[in-house]
Amino acid sequence: MAARMMGMPVGDAASTMLGAALSPGAAALADATVNFFLVALMWVVMMVGMMMPSAAPTILLFSALERKRTATDRIASFVAGYFAIWSAFSIAAAAAQTVLSHTGLISMQMATTSAVLGGTVFIAAGLFEFTPLKERCLVHCRSPLEWIPRHMRPGQLGAFRMGVEHGAYCVGCCWALMLLLFVGGVMNLIWVAFLATIVLVQKVLPGGVTLARFAGVVLVVCGIALLARPLIFA
């Protein structure tokens, strides 16, 4: 994918033959489709890596309750449902990245090239930390012991639906923080690990709502500083 972005030849014999067999328009569409698939796949893998640590307590609790109440193994269905909703988010994020790439607002390192856009995303993510939606979703993610027994559904499909529902709360809690990947760089592993740590701290440590609001203040301040930087150094 990096080679494609830099304009380097990446085709093998099969892709060369395919390109020769297609019209220029069809070949361009096929290439764009492959690129989008790669970007979406990258986002899916990244979301799994970032969210698994904070989702682990809920998954382990579901596993423990399942072993006590039934011999059926539904843990995989629950996890699949959880990451199905994050996969949908990944496709949306890949679409946003594609648009930003075509408008020149994202660099080769997949980070925004606009201080205004970066500062705006920081401020928006910070303000979201104070919203009732953030608090509701975060409280849900922090209290799986209250939610799982009350929403237990039978069968593999039921476990999958539970995973989807829990994943929807998780996306509602963290989507704004995930947008910060466009600012620090989607391929910046240190930035990815930093954001994953923020999510983990908010969901696991005591006082998660307070920690979220503290993070919100820091994000807003960073956003204001980023917006002011071009003015100061103009």
Sequence-ordered SSE layout with sheet pairings:
Layout: H1 2-5, H2 13-21, H3 24-69, H4 75-102, H5 115-128, H6 132-142, H7 144-150, H8 155-179, H9 181-184, H10 189-204, H11 208-232
Helix pairs in contact: 3-4, 3-7, 3-10, 4-8, 5-11, 6-8, 10-11
Question: In words, what does this structure look like?
Answer:
This protein has helices at 2-5, 13-21, 24-69, 75-102, 115-128, 132-142, 144-150, 155-179, 181-184, 189-204, 208-232. It has 234 residues and is mostly helical. The chain has one domain. The longest helix is centred in the first third of the chain and has 46 residues, at 24-69.
Q: Mean pLDDT, as a whole number?
A: 84
Distance between the termini: 35 Å
**Measured on Cα atoms, how large is the radius of gyration?**
21 Å
Q: H/E element string?
A: HHHHHHHHHHH
Model regions low in confidence, pLDDT < 50 over at least 5 residues: none
The overall number of domains is 1
Strand content: under 5%
Shape, principal axes of CA atoms: flat
Count of helical regions: 11
Oligomer: single chain
Give the biggest beta sheet: none
Please count the beta strands (DSSP E, at least 2 residues each): 0
The helix content is: over 70%
User: Which structural category fits the helices and strands?
Assistant: mainly alpha
